[in-house]
Amino acid sequence: MSQKKNLPPLQKAYLEQVVPALMAARGYKNKHQVPALSKIVLNTGISSAADKNQIADAARDMALIAGQKPILNKSRKAIANFKLREGQIVGCSVTLRGDSMWNFLMRLLAVGLPTIRDFRGTSSKLDGQGNYNIGISDFTIFPEIQVESAKRQMGLDITLVTTADTDDEGRELLRLLGMPFRRTENTAPKSTAA
What we know:
- By secondary structure, the protein is of the alpha+beta class.
- 30% of the residues lie in helices and 17% in strands.
- The chain has a single domain (9-177), classed as 50s Ribosomal Protein L5, Chain: A, CATH 3.30.1440.10.
- The chain has four helices and five strands.
- α1 packs across α4.
C-alpha cells in the first residue's frame, strides 16, 4: 500500500472545500471542469546601471522568497535612450508549480499581504483570461528577507495563472482560496444637501 503524499494545507483546502463549492455554485458536472491554479510567476526588474553585486543580491533575495533559484532575464535588443545593451541583465524571474506554488501562495496570503502598511485588500481586476497580477512595491513584506540586509528596495510582480476561462471564474477561485479582494461597493454615506 502506498501512503498518500502530504499535501500543502492550501492545496488540501482547494481539493476538499473549493472544488465542491465551485461545482455547486457554477454547476460543473465534472471536477476537471473546475478552474485550478496552474502556476505562479514571480518577476522583478534590475536597473540597467546595476553592477554584479546588485544583480547577485536581487537573485539571492528572489531565491529566498520563491524557494528556488531564479533565472536571469537579458535584454533582446539595445536601446540607446535607456542606456541598454543587447544581452544585458534586466531582471530575474521564477516560475513556481506544484507544492512550491501552493506553499508560496499560502505565505503570500497569510503573511505577506497582511504586513503591508494600510492594506485594504487587492484589486479584483483580472486580465481577461482568468489570470491575476499583483504588484508589490516592497519585497520586505516576506519574512525570509532581513530588512537590515536589504541594500535596495525591490519591487515584485506576481502572476497567478489559472485554468479559468473567464475573469468571473478566476475571481471566484481566488476568492475561495483566500485572496483578500477589496470591496467594490461604495460604503460612504450619501450627503443630503438641500
